[in-house]
Write a structure and sequence with these properties.
154 residues; two-stranded antiparallel sheet; 4 helices; 50% helix; 3% strand
Length: 154
């Protein structure tokens, strides 16, 4: 497999071993270097700088996931096409991770709120259904009363 064989879009499930996902560290550094278009030494430098954090084998070897490859490609693009330095790229990655985490939290809280809203509606419906209508007499007649206050005499 060469870098040209690697799909550039998400949906790489066909490339993963059974039970693996885009976060599963499966690629050795030489394959990751080829897939990302970078030199293996560059990948080691990016790991030391914290731009990418590949998984580790028990012996300490690096294993890169498809998500790591995507990050490496984005680092290369930002550096070469946009002229962003590595410190700036690291900050961009941190901010994107923070945005992803916040989006996830918003989704979680929205779902929790929707569940609580449904539960509250069900409780309110049970309370309303429990009202005993025979305890409150209701007249079926209608009357109109006009009130005119008396004038005060000084």
């Amino acid at each position: 497999m060469t870098a040209r064989d690697w799909p550039s879009e998400p949906g790489l499930a066909a490339w993963f071993p059974p039970g693996a996902s885009e976060d599963t560290p499966v690629f050795v550094i030489s394959v990751a270097a080829e897939l990302s278009g970078l030199h293996a030494q560059t990948l080691r430098s990016y790991d030391r700088l914290g731009l990418v954090s590949p998984g580790r084998t028990p012996a300490g070897g690096r294993r890169y996931s498809a998500r790591d490859i995507a990050v490496l490609r984005e680092v290369q693009r930002l550096s070469q096409e946009e002229g962003v330095n590595l410190a700036g790229i690291k900050r961009i990655i941190e901010l994107e991770n923070q945005v992803d985490a916040l989006r996830s939290k918003i989704k979680e809280l929205t779902e929790e709120l929707a569940t609580a809203h449904v539960a509250a509606e069900q409780v309110a419906a049970r309370v309303h259904a429990s009202y005993r209508r025979d305890l409150v007499p209701v007249r079926q007649e209608t009357a109109l009363v006009v009130w005119r206050p008396e004038r005060r005499r000084n």
